[in-house]
Amino acid sequence: MEPKIEMREALISEAGQIWEIIQQAIERRRQEGSSQWQNGYPNRNTIESDIAKHFGYVLTVDDEIAVYTALILNDEPAYSSIEGAWLSDGEFVVIHRVAVDEKFSGKGMVKFLFNKIEEFTRSQNIKSIKVDTNFDNLAMLRILESKGYSYCGEVMLAGGMRKAFEKIIF
Fold it and tell me: What is the pTM of this model?
């Protein structure tokens, strides 16, 4: 039987479990030799704030949390200044803080997540998704390429320069 995979808003009662998943991702990035997420961000307060602001989302597999992400509508101050050019200047959804539970690692969950984010974006009548990642986050760079995101340039976020991507969906 196919597993039931859904994306929904995260609940504040899930903050502890989500923080565990984020900590796994922080450790994975450290083991890969990345500087991303190695300076105390994101932290538990970041996650609780995401959820309180209705930015926090989870991808569940048979009701078990597999992936956490933050989806923010039209608000990423760092994106107003890009070395390069965005594909569009209308409304957009920003993807931040993608973290996969180790139990679901390597099972294509982030690709499922990106499909669900496209559905979510369409449901909001928004045509653009923007995302940034560290230059050394090879797994995310591969996913962005496979999902048809266009490299637009670089943006400065806390922690340094990030590669910025956009996808126009119709």
Answer: 0.93
pLDDT tens digits, one per residue of 76-131: 888 999 999 999 999 999 999 999 999 999 999 999 999 999 999 999 999 999 99
Q: So where are the chain's domains? A: 5-168
When comparing pLDDT for 12 and 32, which is higher?
A: 12
- 64 vs 82: CA distance, rounded Å: 37
Three-class secondary structure of residue 43 per DSSP:
coil
> For 119-126, which contacts have Cβ atoms below 8 Å and span 24 or more sequence positions?
119/7, 120/7, 120/57, 120/71, 120/93, 121/93, 121/169, 122/169, 124/73, 124/93, 126/73, 126/90, 126/91, 126/92, 126/93
CATH for the stretch 5-168: 3.40.630.30
